[in-house]
Specification:
Length: 65
């Protein structure tokens, strides 16, 4: 028995390109667009460590102009 992914691929491949483009746009809406990269995760970990060590400043400590 074909897997769900195989069934979807088979069905989509039977459609004309305009319909495939429409489905692609619909599917994109279900996928996250704000996924953190490895660099993002490393920066977040570093910032958390700095916060734990007390190496951060509060907004009150900054002279905003």
């Amino acid at each position: 028995m074909p897997t769900l992914t195989m069934q979807i691929n088979s069905m989509v491949s039977q459609l004309q390109e305009p319909e495939q483009n429409l489905l692609l746009e619909i599917i994109k809406r279900f996928l996250p667009d704000d996924v953190a990269t490895q660099d993002d995760l490393a920066a977040i970990a570093l910032a958390r460590d700095e916060y734990i060590r007390g190496e951060t400043m509060s907004d009150d400590d900054i002279t905003w102009k």
